[in-house]
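INTERNAL TRANSFER SHEET
From: sequence group
To: structure group
Subject: NUDIX hydrolase

Please process the attached sequence and return the structure record in the designated field. Keep the field labels unchanged so the import script can parse them.
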Amino acid sequence: MTIKDTPEEWEIRATDTPFVGNKTSVRTDDVVMPDGTVVHRDYQVHPGSVAVLALDDQDRVVVLRQYRHPVRQKLWEIPAGLLDVPGENPLHAAQRELYEEAHVKAEDWRVLTDVYTTPGGCDEAVRIFLARGLSEAEGERFQVEDEEADMELARVPVDELVRGVLAGDLHNNCLVVGVLSLVAARTGDGLDALRPALAPWPARPFEA
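Return from structure group:
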């Protein structure tokens, strides 16, 4: 048996959007179950995101610490951001986020992994890139605002991040998935065997 997620869509009898926000919305679908019953399913509709595990030549990861109001914590994260434009190329979005949040550019880009963050209640899909060959970006730094104005930047060794994840000290989804995927890729076929940066992404199709 091949272990692989597959597309499937159950019948929807009715749908409503009771809330529309600036970037996301909430949708209610009446979904037909296998036994014929119809149930309500509420979920957040999300444009999708990208995240970047930027690895320098000293085996350190570029991380940032940012306040996240829903969980009332400052979390260590990797650079990430929304796919603001429908059909936006995720590589271009990731390069933009790395520049804006860390003022860094990278020469080598690969797809590290693709995930649904909370598929039981949100359709957000995230593509996590591995970026290597880092250097400081040219030009002036991006002007941050709101929560980002309080951001802290650091470069932390991979081993230290792994220990933090397994100790329950680090909780950001993209950081946890990205760091553990990096370690798994190294012990598997190696980082150069990762998918190319423009690999297809069925969850969020884009123009190459």
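Handover comment: The chain is about 20% helix and 40% strand. The first helix runs from residue 90 to 102.
Transfer complete.
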